[in-house]
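Quick question, first post here. What does this chain look like in 3D?
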Amino acid sequence: MQEGKIEKNIVFSSTGEEIRVAVLENEILSEIFFEDMETEKNSGKIFIGRIENEVPSLEAFFVNIGMKKNGFLRFKDLISIPSDYKRGDMVVVQVKKDGNVRKGPQLSMQINIPGRYIVYMPYGEGSIGISRKLNVQSERERIREIAEDLIYDTEGIIFRTNCQNVDRETISDELNELRKQWHKIAVDYKNASKPKLAYSEDDFIDYIIRERVDSFTKKITVDSRQLYNQVKYCLKNSDYDPFVEIINKDPFFEMNIYSQMDDIFARKIELRNGGTITIDRTEAMTVIDVDSAGNIRGKNIEETSFETNLQAAKEITRQLRLRNIAGIVIIDFIDMHLKSHHEKITEVIAEEAKKDKARITVVGFTELGLLEVTRKRTSPAIDSLLFTPCPICHGTGRVAAPSVVFGRLIKDIDDSLKEMKDHDIKEVVVSVYHNLSGYATFEKKDEIEKKNNVKIKFEFNWNDPNSYNIRYKK
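> Answer (accepted):
Ran it through. Tokens below.
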């Protein structure tokens, strides 16, 4: 296969009532979607909400949109000045960013309704945006002329990448359809008396076809006649016509997708040249470390470092898409001394980022040699949807050392027995995790018994290595 050429295959597989979708680029997994998780996401949905509270210190309103947590509407995302709104007012808002366990979704009154070729902004005030991936100047000028002729002063429009060479009539038809959709929402808003969902994205399959099928898509694989019919129906409205094939076996298994999914869960990823990348996510940012590991190729240490970093740059941009990692990303590449090597790494990430639907900005290398990248966040990272925090370590990935736990245990026993010296305690039964067996020895047991004049019994049946249970018997 020619270097740099992308051949995309989109795989649809049905398991019970759920549809899973994998996007493969040159047979390498780049994105994965689960129908039930996608439908649970709220980013992009439009709600009719009610203002519940104003918080001037945060310059925001809290808005009830019918979910467990109120949404967060910043003053800067209003369509008028803050004093025009008060508690109890009904408003039309769109979810910019999904919420999490601690906070509700981030909202905006600057509505965007996506179509196949354009994004319609009813409050755009004449703004015209054109995808940065459309880089032919004559085409950009043609599109801008169409926009200036079609939109009203109050509206705005963003041209998507696949509008290239699309005629004026097609764009005008889609704009009118999106206007009708907005009119329907506006009528719904006028008649609403309580918070409700006013607009949601298309059907899951139609959404995938619209957002992921492009000129690189050579084939779509499905595992049932029903999926075949649904995909073919959705493709009728597409500008592309990839070959659709049915295979009767589980395509995720047949096409090695399951094994590639392990990359979503792994903290450390091995590179083809012997290097590794290690990914650590925190609440504030994601930190990625690059290590040469077993890579000894190259004429010297500079060449070896550059070769590893080059492979890592490509893999990191794939991992950002695959895991849907967003926000601030700090990458600690192996030290390089040549400015040209730094520039090439930046160039590679920027080029690979063009494959990503989310906007990636390469900020550049810091004085400490760390590369700073940002990726636009709209929905939670996939690991937060697939995993729940460990009830033992609470997501830290660490448990207390046995010596620390045992030391705390002995202090608790001593302190409690002093407080209960008038209660005539005869026996103390202690349930501990099995890793304390080397500390809760017969010698230690005898020492505690003599010191406190009680009988001690250790039971190794506790399921939490960070804690223990003490029972005092008279």
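The radius of gyration is 29 Å.
Residues 8-39+202-258 form a domain with the Nucleotidyltransferase; domain 5 fold (CATH 3.30.420).
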